[in-house]
Specification:
The protein has 3 helices and 2 strands; from the N terminus they run ααβαβ. With 97 residues, the chain is an alpha+beta fold. It catalyses: tetradecanoate(out) = tetradecanoate(in); (9Z)-octadecenoate(out) = (9Z)-octadecenoate(in); hexadecanoate(out) = hexadecanoate(in); (9Z,12Z)-octadecadienoate(out) = (9Z,12Z)-octadecadienoate(in).
Length: 97
């Protein structure tokens, strides 16, 4: 009991058509549910994942400050010359909650 070449071709074409129709239906439906979930969870309200990450971030957050002592401001503004500053001072400051 075998299937003729035409029977196999019809079977594969039918399965492909069914999967194409399911994909055409499920992609917009899936996008709707994903958009709805994102809109619900992105709001920073108590009880959402975004709020938990806002209150207590998973990794430390640093703010970096650069201070320059520009000795030749006119030359920098007029000609775009390099700053004749001794060196930039950098400081990494952890932001505490």
């Amino acid at each position: 009991m075998g299937c003729s070449p035409n029977c196999g071709l019809i079977t594969v074409a039918t399965i492909g058509a069914v999967l194409a129709v399911l994909g055409a239906i499920l992609i917009p439906v899936g996008n709707h549910f994903i958009d709805k979930t994102v809109e619900k969870e992105v709001v920073i309200e108590n009880g959402t994942i975004a709020y938990q990450n806002w209150v207590l971030p998973g990794s430390p957050i640093y703010r970096e400050f650069w201070v320059f002592d520009v000795q030749n401001p006119e030359d920098v503004m007029q000609n775009g010359s390099a700053c004749s500053s001794p060196a930039p001072c950098s400081s990494d400051c952890p932001i505490s909650s």
